[in-house]
Amino acid sequence: MKPEYLLMAVVLAGLFLAAVISQHIKAKKGQRGEDLARLRHIAARQLDNSALYTIVYSCCSQAKWSIGRPVTTAYFSHIAAFRPGELFVIPLQFSGRDIISHPGVRLSRENVGAVRAGKGSQVTFLGTDGRELCTLCVSAGITAEGPFQPLNIQQNAQAEKFDAFLRQFTGEIRSVASRRG
User: Fold this and answer.
1) What is the DSSP secondary structure assignment for residue 173, as one 8-state letter?
2) What is the Cα–Cα distance from 112 to 115, expressed in whole angstroms?
3) Distant-in-sequence, close-in-space partners of 164: CB < 8 Å, separation ≥ 6
4) C-alpha distances in angstroms, 120 versus 4, 60, 87?
5) 159-178 pLDDT tens trace
6) How far apart are the first and last CA of the chain?
7) Tell me, what DSSP letter sits at residue 4?
8) How far is CA 40 from the centre of its chain?
9) Within 10 Å of residue 65's Cβ, how many Cβ atoms?
10) pLDDT digits (tens, 9 = 90+) for 119-153
11) pTM: predicted TM-score of the whole model, two decimal places
12) If you average pLDDT over every residue of the chain, what do you get?
């Protein structure tokens, strides 16, 4: 075997090992709950009795394809605070490690007209007028992946509770066919 190939194999194995170790470190940080605690603090500033809600982090991305134009990707990050019959959603932005929150909106059976299921755990809420209110995608584990997703969150139990909540919450709301975007 040529020395160049051997060197290339060693370098590739080293890069792979570094990536695996990096993901493991990020997951461990997420288990400590530092970023989830920051999100709970933001929710407490906007929501009375926030301790009565389960808090989860939602992050989604949506690619837009256009002929003759580059692909653009939009990222959506939210705090979702929920309890039986009620969902409070707080839009987020990031500036480095700083989290910028925007005024939240309370979603209930009175102002949600339909729900559209997307890929995986993605769900879009539509208002009674048919206008899109928000899209949520709650995952059990999320690791930092650059400026658009800088948080390390491990929320296994909370994600399971959110799935159960969604089944109950959307059970009485009309579902609409998924739209490819």
Assistant:
1) S
2) 8
3) none
4) 43, 11, 20
5) 999 999 988 888 877 666 55
6) 49
7) H
8) 15
9) 9
10) 777 899 999 999 999 999 998 887 677 777 788 88
11) 0.76
12) 82
